[in-house]
Task: structure prediction
Amino acid sequence: MEDFGPPAGGPSADDAEAFDLCDHCGRIIAGPDVLSALVPDSSALHPTASELDGKRVLLACSVDHLALLVEHYRHRPFVPEEQWAGKVCRALADYEGPVPLSVVARLSGLSERQAEQGVEWHNARAREWQARYGHRSVADRDDDE
Result:
């Protein structure tokens, strides 16, 4: 799923104030010079439109930079559990206490098994982070200051 061209619904070519940044080098790009591609990415979640989840818009200042970006994402595995974890986190953003799995599934638009696998994937990444960087309590951090 790749779609090349200017971003849909973007600013018109006459809009000189519109600009973006190249996802490869960070260069500022004027609206009419923006090159884009739509690539699959399990870490990409749209804040409000779940049908756009799993799709990342890449922006580039040149054909070469766009090709490098597309090649990078072509080799990045699409991990459904990563996407499910993001959907669960998005669904629970407004909740403070525990939420039953059946409610999590309904809120996220996933099956209970998908929601469970998403939570497991997220927790595994959290454990990896903790193992790599350690866990310091607030009291420990306060002692360092």
Q: What stands out?
A: The helical segments are 63-75, 80-92, 101-108, 112-133, 138-144. The beta strands are 3-4, 19-21, 28-30, 35-40, 55-60.
